[in-house]
């Protein structure tokens, strides 16, 4: 049996990429808000890391949504999900979260980039300044709802898979928490990588701020992964078999032990601790650590999706 094919396989790699991109967007937007309000405060439009997050969040969510629509059996009928809304459908709720999140995300980004928009609109479209002023007036409400939607979107990627009752490994209440945490990790990593690529200072206060959050985030993620699999083993039956099939010898076992635990979690944790302890934050250190973290989250999405469909109830 191939690692990417089995008789029970329903969802393939495009869904894994969709889950990854949606998580990156939610995490990047979450950290952009944190950086603006708890770290940079004044002139956020000048921060390379906030600008990177404001670029990454819309690009990844639009790319993910495009992949999702393309992967549907009837992509031209996607609009029906929006018109015939079903509040009991996880897919329908997720699409609604995505849509509202996307609108508010662009409004918040416009608020961050207000100095540029106001400068340009003064000569070309003066009425735009009334809109940016209105956005500024509602900023606290807008920011609060956007943070809630970012966290909801991160958790939704896990709920989408856990709603499949026939697959014991996916039908797991810990999965949304795991996907939320890994989505936040990928958002932090993508903001750091994008920030240094946009010539942000690797020893800046933004990098130090994100590293302070990343270290406990990775530790909690490791605990949640342990809880996820211990829950399956202790449940017994097909759940235990699903865990053993995923973690045993073979391609996906190597992906988990070496790819996710070593490259995706242990290396970023060790590098974050090293940079924090030595205060040596160089371009290569920040970029390499962020790349490992992103690669680990991408492998985690594929690992959960494919191994979760190896065993049925």
TrEMBL record:
Keyword NADP: no
Keywords: Cell membrane, Membrane, Oxidoreductase, Transmembrane, Transmembrane helix
One family name in Pfam for this protein: NrfD
Compartments, as annotated in UniProt: Cell membrane
Transmembrane segments: 15-36, 48-69, 89-113, 134-157, 177-198, 218-237, 249-271, 283-304
EC number: 1.7.2.2
InterPro entries reported in the protein's UniProt record: Electron_transfer_protein (IPR052049), NrfD (IPR017566), NrfD-like (IPR005614)
Membrane topology: Multi-pass membrane protein
Gene Ontology terms for molecular function: nitrite reductase (cytochrome, ammonia-forming) activity
The keyword Chloroplast belongs to this UniProt entry's keyword annotation: no
Sequence similarity: Belongs to the NrfD family.
PANTHER family: PROTEIN NRFD
Protein name listed in UniProt: Cytochrome c nitrite reductase subunit NrfD
């Amino acid at each position: 049996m191939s690692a990417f094919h089995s008789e029970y396989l329903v969802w393939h790699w495009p869904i894994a990429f969709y889950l990854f991109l949606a998580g990156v967007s939610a995490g990047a937007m979450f950290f952009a808000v944190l950086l603006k309000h708890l770290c940079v405060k004044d002139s956020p439009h000048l921060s390379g890391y906030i600008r990177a997050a404001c670029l990454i969040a819309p690009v990844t969510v639009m790319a993910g949504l495009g992949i999702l629509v393309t992967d549907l059996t009837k992509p031209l009928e996607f609009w029906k999900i929006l018109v015939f809304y079903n509040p009991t459908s996880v897919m329908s709720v997720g699409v609604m979260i995505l849509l509202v999140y996307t609108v508010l995300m662009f409004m918040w980004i416009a608020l961050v980039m207000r100095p540029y928009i106001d400068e340009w609109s003064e000569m070309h479209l003066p009425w735009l300044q009334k809109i940016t002023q209105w956005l500024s007036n509602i900023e606290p409400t807008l920011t609060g709802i956007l943070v809630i939607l970012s966290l909801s979107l991160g958790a939704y990627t896990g709920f989408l898979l856990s709603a499949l009752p026939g697959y014991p490994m996916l039908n797991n209440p810990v999965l949304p928490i795991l996907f939320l945490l890994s989505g936040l990790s990928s958002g932090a990593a993508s903001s750091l990588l994008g920030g240094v690529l946009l010539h942000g200072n690797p020893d800046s206060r933004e990098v130090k701020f994100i590293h302070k959050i990343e270290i406990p985030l990775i530790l909690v993620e490791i605990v949640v992964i342990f809880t996820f699999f211990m829950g399956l083993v202790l449940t017994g039956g097909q759940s235990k078999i699903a865990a053993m099939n995923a973690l045993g010898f073979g391609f996906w076992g190597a992906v988990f032990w070496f790819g996710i635990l070593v490259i995706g979690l242990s290396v970023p944790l060790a590098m974050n601790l090293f940079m924090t302890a030595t205060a040596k934050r160089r371009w290569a250190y920040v970029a390499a650590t962020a790349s490992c973290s992103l690669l680990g989250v991408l492998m985690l999405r594929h690992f959960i999706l494919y191994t979760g469909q190896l065993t049925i109830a």
